[in-house]
């Protein structure tokens, strides 16, 4: 007769492909109940599951049945995103469980396009997501989300409400000032404006806030990574060597301020012919993979150079919403899920129950 302990042991032999560890080790196993030849197993994961829930249910049932077919298995799989803060950053942001900064070593690699599609992908998986356009000098979020000309409401003359569209909450300096106005701001003023934008926005119950950082690894980026309670980061790169060298700088910057790097996303890795759909590695194969290995981070995934991505995102309907069934959307979903799964394991010993904000009077 099988015991609870045996089922736990069998379960611990299953390595989850997203977490890259077993579910017992990942503290996802919540309960096992045995009665009348049936094992009821409840599992709770720390990231949005989307379609993965059905797949995991099937894979686990098959796996457990193979090891012991004297029982039938009933799986109850659920998820909830936990709030994580880096141990060094004591103060979390109200209503925001996790902040993910998206960076690139240099401009024009498609960081904003990637940020917005990943934010939409996380939302499609079931999470509550916000996006903050931190590119003071070249805000692109209003165009990408089709929210140009919108003005955020203020409640009490201090806090501002995010703009909601396509299921995302968003905030951008582009909603508040004319582009020429911000262009003349110097470094400290730009950092100050940004910080105000971050502190004064009334986000509503976010699982993830994606911050689209300005390109580069200078003072603004460093200040932000230090002053904002960033939980983790993602680096976007293109396969060209020069971009790879710059991407390395971005990873080094996050290491310096002890922000975990969830991985690298390789953008414009291949070219998809808009006539025949043929995919070619125009910059050579495996750049992102090599970089990831060299600096010890994961390659979360690659996106092709595709006319659709450019046209859809630049027209305010990013690919993930415009073509939810497309192969490109599937890639964004896979990357988003890998990213969220990895984040669920970060500083798991430092989990805080949400909300937990400490206010000190000095
Ligand atoms: N995978 C892709 N395929 C085709 N075009 C892309 C892809 N990713 C981004 N682009 C296009 O490249 C241009 C630059 O992209 P984006 O603004 O996202 O880059 P960025 O790195 O955020 O730039 P910046 O450094 O100026 O903030 C945009 O016109 C965008 O539509």
Automatic annotation (TrEMBL):
<keyword id="KW-0408">Iron</keyword>
<feature type="binding site">
    <location>
        <begin position="105"/>
        <end position="112"/>
    </location>
    <ligand>
        <name>ATP</name>
    </ligand>
</feature>
<comment type="subunit">
    <text>Homodimer.</text>
</comment>
<dbReference type="Pfam" id="PF10609">
    <property type="entry name" value="ParA"/>
</dbReference>
<dbReference type="GO" id="GO:0016226">
    <property type="term" value="P:iron-sulfur cluster assembly"/>
</dbReference>
<dbReference type="InterPro" id="IPR044304">
    <property type="entry name" value="NUBPL-like"/>
</dbReference>
<dbReference type="InterPro" id="IPR034904">
    <property type="entry name" value="FSCA_dom_sf"/>
</dbReference>
<keyword id="KW-0411">Iron-sulfur</keyword>
<dbReference type="GO" id="GO:0046872">
    <property type="term" value="F:metal ion binding"/>
</dbReference>
<comment type="function">
    <text>Binds and transfers iron-sulfur (Fe-S) clusters to target apoproteins. Can hydrolyze ATP.</text>
</comment>
<keyword id="KW-0378">Hydrolase</keyword>
<dbReference type="InterPro" id="IPR002744">
    <property type="entry name" value="MIP18-like"/>
</dbReference>
<dbReference type="InterPro" id="IPR033756">
    <property type="entry name" value="YlxH/NBP35"/>
</dbReference>
<comment type="similarity">
    <text>Belongs to the Mrp/NBP35 ATP-binding proteins family.</text>
</comment>
<dbReference type="Pfam" id="PF01883">
    <property type="entry name" value="FeS_assembly_P"/>
</dbReference>
<keyword id="KW-0067">ATP-binding</keyword>
<feature type="domain" description="MIP18 family-like">
    <location>
        <begin position="4"/>
        <end position="68"/>
    </location>
</feature>
<dbReference type="GO" id="GO:0140663">
    <property type="term" value="F:ATP-dependent FeS chaperone activity"/>
</dbReference>
<dbReference type="GO" id="GO:0051539">
    <property type="term" value="F:4 iron, 4 sulfur cluster binding"/>
</dbReference>
<dbReference type="InterPro" id="IPR000808">
    <property type="entry name" value="Mrp-like_CS"/>
</dbReference>
<keyword id="KW-0547">Nucleotide-binding</keyword>
<dbReference type="GO" id="GO:0016887">
    <property type="term" value="F:ATP hydrolysis activity"/>
</dbReference>
<protein>
    <recommendedName>
        <fullName>Iron-sulfur cluster carrier protein</fullName>
    </recommendedName>
</protein>
<dbReference type="GO" id="GO:0005829">
    <property type="term" value="C:cytosol"/>
</dbReference>
<dbReference type="InterPro" id="IPR027417">
    <property type="entry name" value="P-loop_NTPase"/>
</dbReference>
<dbReference type="InterPro" id="IPR019591">
    <property type="entry name" value="Mrp/NBP35_ATP-bd"/>
</dbReference>
<dbReference type="GO" id="GO:0005524">
    <property type="term" value="F:ATP binding"/>
</dbReference>
<comment type="similarity">
    <text>In the N-terminal section; belongs to the MIP18 family.</text>
</comment>
<keyword id="KW-0479">Metal-binding</keyword>
């Amino acid at each position: 007769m099988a015991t609870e302990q045996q089922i736990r042991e069998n379960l611990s032999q299953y390595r989850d492909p997203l977490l890259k560890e077993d579910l017992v080790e990942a503290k996802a196993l919540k309960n096992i109940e045995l009665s009348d030849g049936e094992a009821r197993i409840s599992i709770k994961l720390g990231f949005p599951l989307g379609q993965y829930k059905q797949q995991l249910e099937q894979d686990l049932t098959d796996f457990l049945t193979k090891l012991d077919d004297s029982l039938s298995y009933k799986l109850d799989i659920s998820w909830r995103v936990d709030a994580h803060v880096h141990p060094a950053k004591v103060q979390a942001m109200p209503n925001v469980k996790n902040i993910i900064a998206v960076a690139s070593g240099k401009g024009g690699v498609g960081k904003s396009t990637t940020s917005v599609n990943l934010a939409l992908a996380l939302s499609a998986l079931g999470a509550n997501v916000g996006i903050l356009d931190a590119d003071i000098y070249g805000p692109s979020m209003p165009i990408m989300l089709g929210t140009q000309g919108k003005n955020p409401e203020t409640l009490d003359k201090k806090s501002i409400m995010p703009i909601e569209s396509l299921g995302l909450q968003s905030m951008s300096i582009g909603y508040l000032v004319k582009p020429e106005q911000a262009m003349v701001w110097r470094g400290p003023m730009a950092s100050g404006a940004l910080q105000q934008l971050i502190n004064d926005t009334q986000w509503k119950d976010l699982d993830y806030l994606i911050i689209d950082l300005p390109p580069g690894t200078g003072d603004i980026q460093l200040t932000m990574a230090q002053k904002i309670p960033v939980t983790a980061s993602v680096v976007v790169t293109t396969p060209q060597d020069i971009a790879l060298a710059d991407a390395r700088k971005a990873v080094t910057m996050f290491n310096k301020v002890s922000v975990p790097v969830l991985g690298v996303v390789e953008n414009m890795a291949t070219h998809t012919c808009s006539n025949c759909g043929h995919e070619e590695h125009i910059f050579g194969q495996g750049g992102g993979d090599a970089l990831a290995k060299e600096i010890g981070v994961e390659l979360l995934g690659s996106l092709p150079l595709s006319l659709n991505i450019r046209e859809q995102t630049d027209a305010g309907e990013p690919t993930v919403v415009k073509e939810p069934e497309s192969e490109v959307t599937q890639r964004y979903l896979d990357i988003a899920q890998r990213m969220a799964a990895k984040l669920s394991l970060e500083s798991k010993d430092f989990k805080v129950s949400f909300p937990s904000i400490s206010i000190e009077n000095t």
